[in-house]
Structures are given as C-alpha cells and as structure tokens.
Amino acid sequence: MIMLMLAVFHVSADNNRPQFGEQPKLVVGIVVDQMRWDYLSYYYNRFTREGFRKMIDEGYSYDNCMINYIPTVTAIGHTSAYTGTTPAFHGICGNTFFVDGKRTYCCGDSTVSTVGTDNKRVGQMSPVNLLSTTIGDQLRLHNDFRSKVIGISYKDRAAILPAGHTANAAYWLDLKNGQFVTSTYYMNDLPQWVKDVNKQMAQNNQLKKLGVDVGLSPLTGTLIVDMAIAAIKGEKLGQGDVPDMLCVSFSHTDVIGHKWSPKSTQIDEAYLELDKDIARFFKSLDELVGKGNYLVFLTADHGAVHNSQYMMDHHLHAGKWLSEPLRKDLDQYIVNRLGNTKPVILGIIDYRVFLDKRSIQQQGLDYQRVKDVIIEFLQQSPHLAFVVDGEKIATSSIPPVIRDRLLLGYNYHRSGEIFIVPEPGYYEYGSWSSPKGTTHGEWNPYDSHIPLLFYGWHIPQGNDPQEVHITDIAPTVCSLIHIQQPNASIGKALKFD
C-alpha cells in the first residue's frame, strides 16, 4: 500500500513538470531586501492567507537556501539570484568596490543620462559592470528578443542588475523628486504609463510628507506594487505569444532594518504591510495574467544580524567591530613597520581590504610584504576569527565552509586583497551605523540563510529541507521554462518532489 502511494505521488509529480513547448505567460522574480529566512515562520500566523502564506501554503519552499559566497550584500545578492553565479564570475563584488584603483559603484555609468527628472546623477546607471547574463537575458535570447524584461525597485541596483543587459527597461526611485526614473541606456523618454504613475505619485500627500525618507516607510512597498501592476498593464506583460519577465525588488525592508533591526516594531510593521501589498500584487496577477499562467519565485539578497546590544542584553556573544579607529591604527602600524610616506590602503569595504597597488609600486614597497604586515596587525585585533590573503584562500588553514564562500566571492580584479571574518555575532560598526539598527555582509546563517519560495505555473505544494543555494535559482527557473542557463551559471536546477 505504501509503495503504491509513493508510486502515485511520483507519477503525479512527473505529470506536473512542464514539458517542452510549455511556457508560462509571465515569470515574476521577487527579492525582499534583508529578509531573514526565519521571518517566514516568525510572522506566519500574522500574515494574511493571500500574501507570503499563499506562496508557503500553495507553493513550494526550500527551507535551507544559503548564500554560498562572501560578502552578503545587496548588489551581489540580486545579481547572484538572477545569474546563477557569484562575484568570482559575474563581477559585481559589492555595492561599491575598486576597479584598477578607482572607487566604482556597481551600476555607475557616466556615459548615460537620467530619464524622467532633472536630477542628473540619479540616472547615470546601467548594468555596465555586470560580466554575465541573467535569466532575463537568456529569455530574450531564446525568444529572439520578443520577450519583454523589466526591473522595478526603490534602489537602482535592485532594478538594474536583476533585469540584465538586454532588459527593455529598469525603473527606480528618484528620492529627491519622488518619481520613478530610468536612464538613456534603456530609452530616451519615459513611456506614458510611467508618466501617469509619476503624476499620481506627485499627488500623494503621504509621499510628499516623507520626502527622501520614504524608504523608512512601508509606503515604499505600496509604491513598488503600484508600479509593478502598472508595468503589467502598460507593457501588456504576459499577453504575447512568448513569456515576459518582471523583476521586482522591495528595498525598504533593508532601509528599515539598518535603522531599527530585527525584533523592532518598525520591522514588524514593514513585513505585515508588505504582506498586504504582495497579496494585492497576486490578485492583480490573477486578474491580468490569469491564475496558473505565471511563475513566481521569492527570495532575499541577504539576511541580517540581530542588533549587538539586544544580543548582549540577553547574554549572547555579540559586539561591534569598530572599523574606523582600527583603520587609523592600521595605517600607523604599516608606517611603523614599512616606513611608507603615502597610504597604501584604498579602503576597507564589506570586510575586505583594498590596496593601492600603484602607491605600493611607486614607493618601492614589496607587495606581499605589505599584505603580510596588514594581516599581522589584523590577526592581533580582537573579535576577528580569520584574516585571509585573497590570493591564498585555497591553501589557507580555515574551515571549508568559509574557505569555499571566500573563493566564490573572490574576483582578483574587483574584490580587494585581504578578507576579514569576524567572530559570530560581531559586525562592522561605523559613523554611518544606527545604534538600534543592524547590518549584514558575513557568512553566518543570520546573513546567509534566505527564503526561497516558488509559486504558480507547474509548481506543486511542498517543502524541502535540503541545503540549496542562491545560485540554484536561475538554473531552476531556466529549466522550468526550457531555456539556456545564464552564461556563467554554477548552480543546479532544483526538483520539486
């Protein structure tokens, strides 16, 4: 009897898998910035049945999805989810990093201009620094560029990087003017439907009151869903003879988290209101595209650590890694040891030391000796578990779980020279930090364990506890809709059993 039931189950699962020639009308990717995996269970009984719970109760959850690289930050997470690969290959090595000694914003592009407002800098953005293709790029290639791919977010990088190189458009918020903008990389004028959305936003009194602080309000989620629904209508997404793709990212959860951290009333409000917005989004998808005609995945770009003071108040090992005073002491230590007259460090970003190779060469200093002196100093610093030379990761005496993440996160040209791994519970804290807030960027489960939910077209109900990775998302989606994986994908296509 048991064997018969198992056989029926497997036949049913096989029948549910899409066959060649079958494709959804629309693929929707959703990224919730800074969403810890445990938020799904923490808020489950407070979520509505039509939002997050719809994906859990009627869709498929991979309960142990991990980020398999370091550092765990926004630009890298969004890129890795949609490319199926890591910084070692896709080249997005942080929100900001150094390339040939030049500080580089992940989407910064001085060759393009703003479209939509008179704010010149906000629109000088494109996927210029992205080295690999995305799901959307592969979808466009597969369908001879007849598919439409659009990215939407509060943050420019969260709209641009998921949508890829060949996207029809990416839209993000100009906080100064409270409008959605894009760049000349995509177009020279906003479509009428975007202008209509901006007109409505100009009349939004709550938005006017919040101004540049709108990211600290759940209103941002409402605006993003409004824009996503308008995009489906305005671009007739899901209405053609080939699939389209809509990449949606909710970034206000990250802004609020940095300010107030997990376990705050502000985070509670953010997720409960976002749940309502997602429910409204699903209702519109059912009405505009048709229930069962669209495929959705939801994940996060990274998680977040609990506030250190909150942890210490409950007798848990935690604390702040004060990078700014450490940097001053480190600079002086280098001078004392090497006698350099000019700085040799460009910056410390996301637990990585970026060296000024030109300065080192001009001063006649030995490059390896400079690295050794820096590592020597950092290894004496409190609350740092490991300090690793980027070029020696593979042979370093560090646990494999960290070594493998460092290797996948290391890009020789863009990742800096030295990686820093704090003790569990410790995180970087600087003048930009909020005393009540949080941050992210480390290998630990609080930063690397993220949700992965699938819902809709050919997705059965269920869950799986096996460890999977953020890099498995893109190959899974591509396998389901029968298109080639992105060109640097290292992930595996997941089964829904």
Would you give an account of this structure?
The chain is of the alpha/beta class and 497 residues long. It has 19 helices and 19 strands. It has helices at residues 2-16, 39-42, 52-58, 74-83, 87-90, 135-142, 156-163, 192-202, 205-210, 219-234, 252-260, 265-290, 308-313, 323-338, 357-362, 367-379, 400-409, 445-448, 473-480; strands spanning 26-32, 60-66, 96-99, 102-105, 114-115, 149-153, 169-174, 179-183, 244-250, 294-299, 319-322, 345-349, 352-355, 384-389, 418-422, 426-429, 449-450, 452-456, 462-469. The strands form four sheets. Strands 1, 2, 5, 6, 7, 8, 9, 10, 17, 18 and 19 form an eleven-stranded mixed sheet that branches. A four-stranded antiparallel sheet has the order 12-13-15-14, covered by helices on one side. A two-stranded antiparallel sheet has the order 3-4. The longest helix is centred in the middle third of the chain and has 26 residues, at 265-290. The chain starts with a helix and ends in a 17-residue tail after the last helix. The relative contact order is 0.20. The model is unreliable at 4-13 (pLDDT under 50).
